[in-house]
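Whether sequence alone determines local backbone shape is best considered at the level of individual chains. The sequence in question and its structure tokens are set out directly beneath this paragraph.

***
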Amino acid sequence: MSQKIVIAGTGFAGVWAALSATRAIALASKEEAVEVIVVSPTPNLVIRPRLYEAVLENMDPDVGALLAAVGARHLPGLVETIDVDRRTIKVARVSGGHETIAYDRFILATGSQLFHPAVPGLKEYAFNTDQLETARDLDAHLKALASKPETSARNTVVIAGGGLTGLEAATEMPIRLRAALGADAQFRVILIDTADQPGGSMGVAPQPYFAEALTHAGVEVRSAVRVDAIDAGSVTLSSGEQIETNTVVWAAGVRASPLTEQIAGERDAFGRIVGDAFLHAPAAEGIFVTGDAVRAATDDIGNVAAMSCQHALSLGRVAGHNAAAELVGLPLHPYSQPKYVTCVDLGDWGALFTEGWDRQVQLTRDEAKAVKQEINRVWIYPPAPDRDAVFAVANPDYVIVP
């Protein structure tokens, strides 16, 4: 009977965990002894970092042929429960019914989801770009605005959240509104942030560029306030200000997948399980955590992986390799990703490219935009289903950075 590695999720970390695991199995010539099963509703990798964009084609490439090419099996379903003691998972099959699968190693790569605090009206009235379906809902709503009576509420978009997702959504929004309402349309885009200034988590160096890009786009900013309530025609801020709007885009952070709650262990403020150097869940034997589900040190000076595709690609490779290595007798590989870059799309102004955890600005405007487009449209997409070519880049210490 073959041993089984079961991977939950076909996001960046899940796909690369599968590619790295099958590579390690092939290196040990154990293809007949170890099976890799990937569980997700469909064999698609959603390009989540791009969902703020106006054009949503090819945002969920099919990875079925890729997984098959390296010898992994895709199971259409959703992991509902994890039984750590029995080493089994219960899967709700897309075709109907449930299936219990025993595993020798389990990799949790189900990512994260948008944070929904208890804000009245948030779930009923706000849009978001967290998943492809919700991004399409927002796109359809924006395109339908022109058919509605012209009012202040129709012509105002509020973005709640001044992190990188909020910045990208806000600076892209004027482009989308001109396309929907006409080149000469009068509209407002308002960015709401609880911090003193948008993008504050990136430190001091990028701030003048963010401010310039927001001004260039005509985006109004409300800092140090939060959204207290949302209804069909307005938002109310903690300052007491009420803004008439039919379009609220929620971009106020993410939390780790709820499946992390079924695995014992220490967690951080985002719900991520604190993993060890090899991405084990330390309190759950046989389980690895990766991508947005794990809090992992990137170096030995205190930096921790961000909840980003940049880190998920490497985290997936390491978790997949180590899960397989434990079964086939290869050395484990500790996770390390000391080089860190950030590239933020800022609409018509361009983009901002920084290096290091202190975010030193390296490129701006058109130069940075070219890098951002290369990242978004090429580097983060899954490779072609060529087994040898995939295995050449699926090793656990392979890192793609500009």
User: Anything to note?
Assistant: The chain has two domains: 3-114+254-339, 122-250. The chain has a mean pLDDT of 97.
